[in-house]
Design a protein that fits this description.
By secondary structure, this protein is of the alpha+beta class. It has helices spanning 19-24, 32-38, 41-53, 88-95, 102-118; strands at residues 12-14, 27-29, 58-61, 67-70.
Amino acid sequence: MTSFAADGITGERYTSDSGRFNKIFQVRAAEPMQAARFLKPAVIVALEQQARQLKQLNLAFSHDGQLCISFADNDMLQSKAPCGLDQLAQFRQSIEQPTALPKLSQLLATVHQLLRHSDSNF
């Protein structure tokens, strides 16, 4: 599933019922029914929302179901330090706190949603 023209992508093309999704992603699968089973309406909405947050979002699944996500954003793990080393006490306190990484948190929430909607072990 690619949001930009990538060479070497094989498989049959799948088109969903969502025009917005089809404008964002090109979907290829060994069998279109595989893509249809995975791309439930909630999954399509989640991927549309995630594609608004990340440039050139791509999802690739291996034959054994491993997921590889790629994108063109280079600021996924960037955070701003609240102060410099010249304010050592405040700096020390800031590194003892969890670092907010909103893009990563959003991506992990999307992956969780994909897993939740594709888990067939009820």
